[in-house]
Design goal:
Length: 34
């Protein structure tokens, strides 16, 4: 059970870290500000 909890935390952390990067990359590609 501990392994599942650790995996869940890692996945959530990756999502939180990757979301801003994806937003910034799409803004740069789309030419939008903010």
């Amino acid at each position: 059970m501990k392994r599942a909890i650790i995996i869940t935390i890692l996945v959530l952390a990756l999502l939180l870290l990757s979301t801003p990067l994806a937003v910034e990359s799409t803004n740069i590609l789309g030419g939008y500000s903010g």
